[in-house]
Design a protein that fits this description.
Layout (H helix, E strand, L loop, with lengths): L5 E7 L32 E6 L7 H4 L2 E3 L19 E6 L2 E5 L5 E5 L5 E5 L30 E8 L5 E5 L5 H8 L17 E6 L5 E6 L26 E7 L9 H15 L1 H4 L3 E6 L4 H15 L5 E3 L8 H14 L9 H64 L1 H19 L5 H18 L1
Parallel strand pairs: 1-3, 2-4, 9-11, 9-12, 12-13, 13-14
Antiparallel strand pairs: 1-8, 2-7, 5-6, 5-8, 10-11
Length: about 450
């Protein structure tokens, strides 16, 4: 059976029957009066959700639906027969929108739910309804009303509890065939699944849920690449999303972490609400050597984000039970403990004080060093000034030493002479040194005589 999830149809309700204009004509009855009956009501177009249907295929080939008109009224007070409503069966989960305005008219999400899309016209009144005491022979009647007509767009959103997402050839069809009785097409080439598949999963303790497998999503699906992302509408009603990552993928740029990021990016482009649903990450194809080698880096990368990875193998069934336990816990209890890892939060909390201390030390370090630099800057000129004068003094001493060796007596006498003159002027009584020099001179001369 071909899967069709979106159609455009035209519906027209039936018109109401016209009222009759008639008079009673019987023998021996004079002036019988008006007896025209009323017209019947037209049929309405009613949509009913049927859980036995899974596709809108019937409306792809028959797009015009018209209900029957009501019968006209007749004489002898006979009313026209009303037309039956046209009932259109649609799958549960069908959205009915106005094609012109795009307004959502109804969401048939419950089995047996009904919606009147176009109401039938009302039947007209016969002339017997217009007879009065002053108008005893009315020769007119009322026409029936027109039925409503509208162009609708039907969109099907499958009612599934768990949605299965992944790249083409990631093993989604094998996964759903292992956990349920669904038997989708399985092959070793991309885009094997062209339409969504539903499977009933029988869990423990008589619990069950519906899982939807949609076609593969690739980068650029929001722009129409591949099969596009129009099939994502079938997982909008899901409470849990399972990301099946192909750990053995081969090709340019195909890495498990890159595939996971692309899937989440496409979900955000389609709907932010859909991207915010709980996600269970399953690393498939652990029966391959390449898949086991890539598991470690992929698990560590998602561990830093606080996401737990469940290694599974859809071919051998390895790890499937633990994965289904995590899915069932989120679905039935709403707890997300099994799909998150608390280790990154504890590590980050322990590293937080160390980072704060390092930041504080880095902030305080330059403040303490600044005065030392300033002090050194202040001391440096002092040292330089102390060195330079010493050198200058040494040079001056050497020059004076050389000069003193040549004419020492002359310098001393030249320096002392003004002092002695000043002392002689101020205190004439201090003339003893002059007498001593005068006494020493004759001693030197007497020695020469001897």
């Amino acid at each position: 059976m071909k899967f069709v999830d979106e159609v455009r149809i035209y519906v027209k309700a039936g018109d109401g029957g016209n009222g009759a204009v008639a008079f009673r004509r019987e023998k021996f009855i004079e002036r019988g009066g008006p007896n025209g009956g009323d017209g019947g009501n037209g049929g309405s177009v009613v949509f009913v959700s049927n859980p036995q249907l899974t596709t809108l295929l019937d409306y792809r080939y028959q797009q015009h639906h018209r209900a029957k008109n009501g019968e006209h009224g007749m004489g002898s007070d006979c009313n026209g027969h009303g037309a039956e409503d046209m009932v259109l069966q649609v799958p549960v989960g069908t959205l009915i929108r106005n094609e012109q305005t795009g307004e959502l008219l109804v969401d048939l999400s419950d089995p047996g739910q009904q919606f009147v899309a176009a109401k039938g016209g009302r039947g007209g009144l016969g002339n017997m309804n217009f007879a009065t005491s002053t108008r005893q022979t009315p020769r007119f009647a009322q026409d029936g009303g027109k039925g409503e007509e509208i162009t609708l767009r039907l969109e099907l959103k499958l009612l599934a509890d768990v949605g299965l997402l992944g790249f083409p050839n990631a093993g989604k069809s094998t996964f759903i065939s292992r956990v349920s009785r669904a038997r989708p097409k399985v092959a070793d080439y991309p885009f094997t699944t062209l339409v969504p598949n539903l499977g009933m999963v029988q869990y423990k303790d008589s619990l069950s849920f519906v899982m939807a497998d949609i076609p593969g999503i690739i980068e650029g699906a929001s722009e129409g690449v591949g099969l596009g992302h129009q099939f994502l509408r079938h997982v909008e009603r899901c409470k849990v999303l399972v990301h099946l990552i192909d750990m053995g993928a081969e090709g340019e740029g195909r890495k498990p972490l890159a595939d996971f990021n692309i899937l989440n990016a496409e979900l955000k482009k389609y709907s932010a609400e859909l991207a915010g649903k709980p996600q269970v990450v399953a690393a498939n194809k652990q029966d391959l050597t390449e898949g086991r080698d890539r598991l470690g880096p992929f698990t560590e990368a998602l561990r830093r984000r606080g996401i737990r990875v469940y290694p599974v193998s859809c071919a051998t069934g390895e790890g499937m039970q633990s994965l289904m336990d995590a899915v069932a816990e989120v679905l039935f209890t709403g707890r997300t403990d099994k799909i998150h890892v608390e280790m990154p939060t504890t590590r980050s909390a322990s590293k937080a004080p160390a980072k704060k201390a390092a930041k504080q030390a880095a902030r305080k370090g330059p403040a303490k060093k600044a005065p030392a630099k300033k002090a050194a800057a202040k001391k440096a000129p002092a040292k330089k000034s102390s060195r330079k004068p010493v050198a200058k003094k040494a040079a001056a001493k050497k020059a004076s030493a050389k000069k003193s060796s040549r004419k020492p007596v002359a310098k001393k006498s030249a320096r002392k002479a003004p002092v002695k003159k000043a002392a002689a002027k101020k205190a004439p009584a201090r003339k003893a040194p002059a007498k001593k020099f005068a006494r020493k001179a004759p001693a030197k001369k007497s020695g020469g005589r001897r």
